[in-house]
Q: What sequence folds into this?
């Protein structure tokens, strides 16, 4: 998502927690729509005695798609926690007349699964650290700006979502709609589930390939949580977002004094995965010099922390994922061939959504059910909206589908999602989809039989191969349709 421009805070009073001169939220429809597109639909409870802080946090959280509740005192917060399904609490640690740490402990006692984000002044960062030790998930220091609040809320959302998925992955490997938290019944997905099940019980590296948003991360976690090391750590390493100069110390750890600021030794992520899985996400982004170090670590099954001379044995299973064409990168010399072979013992290709369009209704229904669990509103689709979703190519795959539906749910007031509630990318696609009548106009006069053939074939394509529905909409019997297709020699 694009960062929101730093313009004066529109629409609401500037609260005391807000940094002077920092923008918070624009009132422009476009950026609001973008924010909503990343909507989370989790329940957030804001606990603060200052009305202006509550209101502005609420405005920001609403724009991010949270369903927000407010409380001005601990007692009020406890009542809300007892009566509402709260996922995240944004808690002011300095409520007058109370001990913030006590309030935090009481919240965690009542709702251990709730993620608490502490709001605290710069002067009291120490207490924020204490609060984290007492179970808070994260903290923001006042004064904070919109971007800081957004970042922390995004982080907590990803954490909660992953927690739920991991639980599902642990509890039920085979599910009604797919495999663990993975939804999909297309033959391509069945094949994928079979390989995941096999991979889960081996210790070989697995390379997971697929376009962005296809579910590579979910596949990696499925492999880990359905295998026998499921109770050991699963450590994801995002090679694409780590600062290059820090990747080595993050991966391999460092010894005391290795560099300025290394006041004590620290284990790396590979060592932290001890007995479990290390997931090298976006492995195609790894700088070449680190590729050699990683290769050595995998071959020798030991790592050398930065600044250290002693090798430490490692015992972690390696999974890697990328949306890049690694073979091409090998040809171009940007990815080491030997590392490619080492990671590529078993390869999994996660199919793009456009190659398994029959899963769209299932995935869409899954998202609507998830939204309904937090909002209490069970939504459905108009026929036109569903048709459009089936025709669309989904370049952003399942992630785009999820975002699109969460946004649509946030925008519609009624229970039915119509085409107008879908993002402009889909609506534009709708208007660009070839119109049979228009194509006839440009083609000039054609024999009637030819027009009939084109109409039938176009209808079947438009309905994603559903011949019965095509016959129904064309107003002809299904036997007629099958006979015509046979005449055309069509295999659609
Ligand atoms: N088969 C599936 N069933 C249910 N949800 C899915 C499925 N595949 C993907 N998702 C959801 O789609 C989103 C994107 O998936 P994920 O992060 O695993 O994709 P990715 O391939 O790792 O993307 P990127 O390349 O951008 O990192 C996640 O919210 C994930 O839970
Ligand atoms: Mg990913």
A:
């Amino acid at each position: 998502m694009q960062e929101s421009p730093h313009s004066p805070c529109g629409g609401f009073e500037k609260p005391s927690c807000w940094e002077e001169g920092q923008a918070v939220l624009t009132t422009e429809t476009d950026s609001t729509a973008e924010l909503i597109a990343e909507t989370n639909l989790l329940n957030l409870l804001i606990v603060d005695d200052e009305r202006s802080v509550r209101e502005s946090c609420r405005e920001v959280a609403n724009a991010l798609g949270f369903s927000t509740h407010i409380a001005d005192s601990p007692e009020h917060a406890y009542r809300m926690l007892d009566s509402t399904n709260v996922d995240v609490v944004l808690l002011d640690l300095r409520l007058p007349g109370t001990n913030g740490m006590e309030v935090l402990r009481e919240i965690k006692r009542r709702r251990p699964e709730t993620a608490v984000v502490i709001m605290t002044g710069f002067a009291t960062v120490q207490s924020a650290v204490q609060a984290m030790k007492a179970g808070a998930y994260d903290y923001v220091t006042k004064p904070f700006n919109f971007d800081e609040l957004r970042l922390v809320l995004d982080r907590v959302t990803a954490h909660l979502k992953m927690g739920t998925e991991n639980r599902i992955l642990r509890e039920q490997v085979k599910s009604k709609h797919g495999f663990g938290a993975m939804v999909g019944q297309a033959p391509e997905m069945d094949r994928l589930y079979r390989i995941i099940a096999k991979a889960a019980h081996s210790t070989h590296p697995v390379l997971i390939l697929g376009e962005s948003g296809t579910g590579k991360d979910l596949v990696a976690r499925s492999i880990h949580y359905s295998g026998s090391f499921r109770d050991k750590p699963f450590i994801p390493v995002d090679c694409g977002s780590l600062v290059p100069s820090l990747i080595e110390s993050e991966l391999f750890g460092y010894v005391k004094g290795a560099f300025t600021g290394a006041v004590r030794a620290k284990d790396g992520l590979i060592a932290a995965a001890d007995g479990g899985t290390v997931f090298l996400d976006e492995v195609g982004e790894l700088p070449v010099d680190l590729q050699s170090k990683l290769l050595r670590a995998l071959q020798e099954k030991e790592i050398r922390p930065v600044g250290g001379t002693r090798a430490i044995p490692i015992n972690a299973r390696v999974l890697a994922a990328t949306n890049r064409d690694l073979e091409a990168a090998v040809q171009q010399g940007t990815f080491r061939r030997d590392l490619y072979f080492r990671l590529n013992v078993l390869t999994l290709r996660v199919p793009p959504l456009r190659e398994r369009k029959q899963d769209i209704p299932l995935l869409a229904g899954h998202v609507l059910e998830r939204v309904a669990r937090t909002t209490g509103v069970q939504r459905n689709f108009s026929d036109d909206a569903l048709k459009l979703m089936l025709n669309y190519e989904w370049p952003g795959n399942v992630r785009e589908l999820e975002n699109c539906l969460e946004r649509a749910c946030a925008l519609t007031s009624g229970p039915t999602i119509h085409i107008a509630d879908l993002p402009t990318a889909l609506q534009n696609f709708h208007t660009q989809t070839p119109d049979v009548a228009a194509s006839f106009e440009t083609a000039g006069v054609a024999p009637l039989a030819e027009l009939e053939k084109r109409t039938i074939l176009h209808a079947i394509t438009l309905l994603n191969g559903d011949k019965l529905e095509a016959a129904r909409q064309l107003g002809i019997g299904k036997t007629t349709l099958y006979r015509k297709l046979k005449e055309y020699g069509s295999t659609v």
In short: Confidence is low (pLDDT under 50) at residues 1-40, 435-443. The first helix runs from residue 29 to 37. Residues 182-184, 210, 212-218, 323, 398-399, 402 surround adenosine-5'-triphosphate (ligand 1) (CB under 6 Å).
